[in-house]
Amino acid sequence: MNPYQCETIELEKVGCNGCFWEIQVGLEMLGGFKSMSYDMAAMAITVEYDERELTREAIEQKIGELGYRLKSKQYEEIGFWQALRRAFGRQQA
């Protein structure tokens, strides 16, 4: 059985290739990390890791510790403008 899991994680506002490199170096410090690739246009990384040693939650936490934000699922589900109205207390009737 292959213990490696492959996950795609979408990020917000990654400025350059160097930022992706910084994320990769940070993830390499985690036990169970195998590899990472990125898609600058999609603002996403694909991480391969040993699920016996590492979890997606730990990967996401490390990304946050490095100062990067994950793309919010809330915006995908309800739409950006509706989320913005909710944030400022203006519900649409």
Mean pLDDT score: 86
Helices and strands, in order, run as: EHEEHEHH
Fraction of residues in H or I helices: 25-40%
Strand content: 25-35%
CATH fold-level name: Alpha-Beta Plaits
Distance between the amino and carboxyl termini? 53 Å
Outline the low-pLDDT stretches.
none
Rg, Å, rounded: 16 Å
Shape category: globular
Under CATH at level 1, the class stands as: Alpha Beta
Task: Name the CATH architecture.
Answer: 2-Layer Sandwich
- Structural class designation: alpha+beta
Strand order of the largest sheet: 2-3-1-4
Number of domains: 1
Major β-sheet annotation: 4 strands, antiparallel
User: What is the count of β-strands?
Assistant: 4
Descriptive overview:
The chain is of the alpha+beta class and 93 residues long. The protein has one domain (4-87): Alpha-Beta Plaits (2-Layer Sandwich). It is 39% helix and 27% strand. It has helices spanning 17-28, 56-65, 73-78, 80-87; strands at residues 4-12, 33-39, 44-50, 69-70. Strands 2-3-1-4 form a four-stranded antiparallel β-sheet, with helices on one face. The longest helix is centred in the N-terminal third of the chain and has 12 residues, at 17-28. The termini are far apart. The model has no long low-confidence stretch (mean pLDDT 86).
Q: What is the topology?
A:
Blueprint (H helix, E strand, L loop, with lengths): L3 E9 L4 H12 L4 E7 L4 E7 L5 H10 L3 E2 L2 H6 L1 H8 L6
Antiparallel strand pairs: 1-3, 1-4, 2-3
Task: State the main characteristics.
single chain; 93 residues; alpha+beta; Alpha-Beta Plaits; four-stranded antiparallel sheet; 4 strands; 27% strand
